[in-house]
Amino acid sequence: xxxxxxxxxxxxxxxxxxxxxxxxxxxxxxxxxxxxxxxxxxxxxxxxxxxxxxxxxxxxxxxxxxxxxxxxxxxxxxxxxxxxxxxxxxxxxxxxxxxxxxxxxxxxxxxxxxxxxxxxxxxxxxxxxxxxxxxxxxxxxxxxxxxxxxxxxxxxxxxxxxxxxxxxxxxxxxxxxxxxxxxxxxxxxxxxxxxxxxxxxxxxxxxxxxxxxxxxxxxxxxxxxxxxxxxxxxxxxxxxxxxxxxxxxxxxxxxxxxxxxxxxxxxxxxxxxxxxxxxxxxxxxxxxxxxxxxxxxxxxxxxxxxxxxxxxxxxxxxxxxxxxxxxxxxxxxxxxxxxxxxxxxxxxxxxxxxxxxxxxxxxxxxxxxxxxxxxxxxxxxxxxxxxxxxxxxxxxxxxxxxxxxxxxxxxxxxxxxxxxxxxxxxxxxxxxxxxxxxxxxxxxxxxxxxxxxxxxxx
Length: 458
Ligand code: NAP
Description:
By secondary structure, this protein is α/β, with parallel strands linked by helices. It has helices at about 25-40, 45-60, 65-75, 80-100, 135-150, 160-175, 190-195, 210-220, 245-255, 275-290, 310-325, 355-360, 375-385, 400-405; strands spanning about 5, 15-20, 105, 115-120, 125-130, 150-155, 180-185, 205, 225-230, 235-240, 265-275, 330, 345-350, 365-370, 385-390, 390-395, 410-415, 430, 435, 450-455. It has two domains: about 5-230 and about 435-455, Aldehyde Dehydrogenase, Chain A, domain 1 (3-Layer(aba) Sandwich); about 235-425, Aldehyde Dehydrogenase, Chain A, domain 2, CATH 3.40.309.10. Helix content is about 40%, strand content about 20%. Helix 3 (about 65-75) crosses helix 4 (about 80-100). The site of NADP nicotinamide-adenine-dinucleotide phosphate has 29 residues, from helix 7 and helix 8.
């Protein structure tokens, strides 16, 4: 049974519970989404772009209120919550400005006809299944390009963030989007499966765990529905050398600890060449030890609680298992006493391929550090993960770093930066990190009918 309720992870305080849909309501939202599509698909591109621009303006105007909601819902430090609202605003604005151009028709070689053109057309109602870790940003990545295209959306958000889910819908309506073009649904897992199976729904996009992705993809496959999956990651952060180790370590700390370590594309594995290893590790330990988790609503806080008590228990179990299996704790590893789902920032080493910690995603402020003898060994280790979301290479020698970045089996490779996301850049992974891309032109290329129209004289 799915319960939609906020539980503040910094205090354990429970918020309002939101009822899940009943059977009749599921039937109703499906009907509404289809009839909404028949109307929305016939609006002009200019009308859709204007609605997205208004949505962006409302996010900007309500930024403080929106940031506060997610800080109390999932514990995101308030400065990061404001940054999330800002990038979400930028995504709506980007599609408002660029969306019309991305839908231009493409004229082909007529090849014997009078006219041969590819149009980009919507396909119908879509289902989005979204996670709690970036409540606004994840929805913006999916909703902005698809609303611009003319698709309609049923959005099932994580059960732990019903307030942000509700306010997203409210803002769309405030921005003038027809009520049935975007419908927030408090649905159970079984209802999600029924919705995917319904003939009116044309596709599903899930951001979340491998388990949820596999379940949704299985239902989608059985019902021949297009699916996009944005799943987990265990991103490598490869240090080849450094002219400024303090700066590299500062980026490593941010790469691992931002969003309290609960980012799919967090730097989860530090892979460091032997000659700089000791320096890197000493500085990284000091950097982690200088950070104390605190109240997410305090602007000084850089590390909040984990999203829930369950998330904390799961992560502590993973750390304990790693230690039992032979890993060494360089720093941290313990729960912080008191209320709230707080854990010390943690660094592990001596993790070997036979241990669970080698292959599992550690979703919190816990990283594993590996020492390697060569850049080739770094690439082999990086690519030994079943995930392939993103990875970064750090070096003063850009040629060498570019070459290593090119060898990573990931959807996004960076040199001397980690985890950059911007509205115009593609986001997505390979291997068990999922398939499909969001953002930029790529985000408009998933749930689209690239429709050929050839016209020949009678
Ligand atoms: P999760 O448990 O998979 O939940 C994500 C969403 O899927 C929630 O709305 C959840 O609903 C729903 N869900 C769970 N099981 C389902 C099922 N069997 N059928 C249908 N829906 C189901 O993931 P999470 O723990 O919240 O999120 C963390 C994961 O997301 C991490 O692995 C992270 O790396 C990944 N992530 C990936 C990206 C990316 O872009 N690649 C971005 C962010 C996060 P309930 O809340 O009701 O269970």
